[in-house]
Amino acid sequence: MLPLYTLDAILLDIEMPKMTGIELAQKLVSEGIDVPVIFSTAYPNYALEAFRVQALDYILKPLTPNAVKDLDYRLKKYYGVSNQQRNSNTLQVQLYGNTFVKKDHQSLKWPTRVTEELFYYFLLHKEKAVSKWHIIDDIWPNIAEKRALANLYNTIYRIRQLFSELNVPITIERTTDGYAMHINQTIQFIEKHNTNDLLLESKGYLWAYKLQSI
User: Fold this and answer.
1) Max Cα distance, the chain (Å)
2) Of the candidates 207, 203, 212, 200, the residue with the CA atom closest to the CA atom of residue 139
3) Residue 30 belongs to domain with CATH number
4) What is the pLDDT of residue 143?
5) What is the spatial distance between Cα 134 and Cα 208, in angstroms, rounded to a whole number?
6) Residue 96 DSSP symbol
7) Residues where 4-aspartylphosphate occurs (predicted)?
8) 2 within a domain of the structure (yes/no)
């Protein structure tokens, strides 16, 4: 539907001819256009429906300077821009043996198991673009294509949302036919303690066995 441009956000008016902004947002999400969506409307009763399609924000008309300023802040937070010190944004990651991700020495609470798995998957591909079809083959190998794609888009959204809430500037970029995660110098890797420890050993991910040489 959209040409492949780098989009920071999509601002949609809910009341549009032929198709509502919410319907358009649903279509964009289903096609993998997964940048933040912001709705504008004169009617507050659309708010709940708007957030069901993963809206970042919901702005009532008329748009005021304060509303635009608040939106700018939310977008910066979404993309990991924070005024906090870099040390507070650092993750400690152990990839071998007893695998973990911690922030401020506390284990991260992942929204779902597959959210955690996809994070490790991107991390081990070292900021390189990975085809969405390869991701699906590795993470959701026995699920129908349409459902697997929906799972992928939703899981990427959850990862972005998690790191936005934690003020950790890790970003996931959409590429021509896939995605790449950029850690932006936010990860401190814990050294391997035992030479016999395997990559992501405590997680048991089948795809990780292909990457044992890392």
Assistant:
1) 63
2) 207
3) 3.40.50.2300
4) 93
5) 13
6) B
7) 13
8) no
